[in-house]
Amino acid sequence: MSEKPDETQWKAVTDDFAVMGQLQPEDIDALAAAGFGAIICNRPDGEAPDEPQFDAIGDAARNAGLQARYIPVSNQVGLTPENVADMRAALAELPKPVLAYCRSGARSAKLYEAAQG
What we know:
By secondary structure, this protein is α/β, with parallel strands linked by helices. It contains four helices and five strands. It has helices at 28-33, 54-63, 81-93, 106-116; strands at 11-14, 17-20, 38-41, 67-70, 98-101. Helix 3 packs across helix 4 (106-116). The mean pLDDT is 93.
């Protein structure tokens, strides 16, 4: 991830929801400047040795004035009913637009779709 994520690095799913791959804490200020109101992490802590833990992302988000939620989706287990319910609740409660991330953005997009159904 570059130091300044921009609209070429996230994929807008709707006007109020976008997905992207792994964030770094230093990416958060640029996302706040881009107008996002909240970040959802769909990547479990410890999935890869070089990924930052959610606490670091969450702290950076709060410091930038964004809300943050942790709704991990395991590649081994896949989407669970709890993941879908948690995502549905987060989307109802969080300020928009929301950016969700995982390793590539695919799990986040699938979870968003499931939460809409």
